Amino acid sequence: MMRGGHSLVAGLAALTTLTAIFWSSGAPLWIGWRVYTEQILIVALAMSMAIAYLTTAGRRPLVSWILAAASLCFGGWLAVRFPTLSENVFYHPTEALIISIIGFTLIIEAVRRTMGWSLIVILACVCLYALFSSEFSGPLQSRSIAPDRLLTFLVLDSASLAGAALSIAVAVVLPFLILSQLLLATGGSAFFSDFSLALAGRRRGGAGKIAILGSAFFGSVSGSAVSNVASTGAITIPMMKDGGYRPKTAAAIEASASTGGQLMPPIMGAAAFLLAENLQATYTAVMLAALAPSILYYFSLFVFADLEAGRLGISRVEESRIPALASVAKRGWFVFAPFAVLIICLFSFNLRPETSALIAILVLFGLSLIRTYDGRRISPRIVFEVLIAAGKAAVEIILICAIAGMIIGLVARSGLSFGLGFFLVQLGESSLLLLLLVTAAVCIVMGMGLPTVGVYLLLASLAAPPLVELGLQPMAAHLFVLYFGMLSMLTPPVAIAAFVAANMAMAPPMRTGWEAVRIAWPAYLIPFLFATSPALLMEGSGFEVSVTLITAAVGVYFVTAGVVGFLTQPLSPFRRLISAGGGMAILLPYNAATSAVWINIAGVLMIVLMAFGRKWRPAQS
What we know:
- The protein is mainly alpha-helical.
- Helices cover 76% and strands 0% of the residues.
- Helix 8 runs antiparallel to helix 18 and helix 13 packs across helix 14 (283-312).
- Mean pLDDT is 86; it is low at 615-621.
């Protein structure tokens, strides 16, 4: 980066964050400034594009500076001219086409530099379809869109570039990124590590359990599996290796726990806000629906860490490394305050997520003026660093949502959503299970190399509607897509979170990826369960929800025992098979099918047989 580049990036990042605060707080209404939402979004997007160019300058810094300047000019021009162009685009065709070509080119190059070709290739495929859709036959045939109309639609239409996806990224996600960065600045990461160490360090396999707890706490705040691995993994992976876990297992536990943080309430990363917007549901409804599956997932990780420790003979963490719980709580109690405020604002006062986040930020900021976890006082310099860090963290999300908005808008405009939806509905009529399997595979394949947010945005407009049309509840359909989008972070051959953890643990990347699949196995099954039983999404009577959760937890425990090969003692291959089979039978929700109760009973009998079989098996061997 050329001299002055760091300062400019810092300034643009802080301005991006302040722009989000300005808009999310409703300040334009207070001061009587009438402005289009799209104008604010375009300004934030332009600054993010400039940051992307300046931070990826490489060997051609001058070209990057020119592209960054062009991005800012594009954003400024379009922000000023947007009201005129959006309302009277047919009276300004030349200006609209020129600004669309410039903007489209700049956005594509910024995305290529920061995230590679994946999203660009998908957008190119959708554009080709829109240009030649009249040449197709059957349900995919539609009216082609002229190239000039296509470009102006992608950049200037409110249903495309500056649509709902970009609005959520700027107005909702950025305030939560500020909250997470402020938590880090006040010692939140160290507190979560120490708190997890104090809670789980004295138990068998404590190092693995500490990693799971810490990553769950921090992952819910950060919403990024890779950044979670990079931050908490620097502490937990060496601790697990020192404790006796194999390098690939230590890396896989960290990757699995960090990835699951994206589905852990109360924050759940950016995807939860997009899901709520797509369903026109409250954020609290999304949190409640995601609660039980995320608890089951982390319960399975705890069981794995415990049973693996028993199998390998891994003991607790050394006493000298474990802080006193009372001391940790006394120094860091304030870290829980913003979470409590957030939940109260969402549930008790029904405030919007961004408003709740801003209030939580103010509460945490006020407390940090008095104390932080490491004893420092927060200063104006630290506040400025928080604004910069949040703005930088938002760049990738903003660019993803901009491209995803184009794809979603064009999919609807071109008629592709109808054609694909018709095809998938026809497939599902023959077998809903087949459609679920195909959807899961598509989510994982499309997600390879993409963040979860991008995968969810794409698949929510393509795969979720057919699932809903075939009878799945909307919440179940969208969570199904979100889960398998998340799993692309763990599933080889492009398991980004697992590969980052493997590099930190000095373990073979591909073996670590498959180890992560073995550890996180419930995440591949739970979506199919809540697709058939809404009780797992907290829908139904208290009895139904309780019974379903209890049987699911029991089933997860025994399947995990079969996967690990250890219960109270090492299991033979036959007993592993019995444990896994019996656990799977118990795991099936009792109301999923007419014969489900009998399958549950058969599973219980298998587990009982395995337990009592210990008495007579040695005599036969």
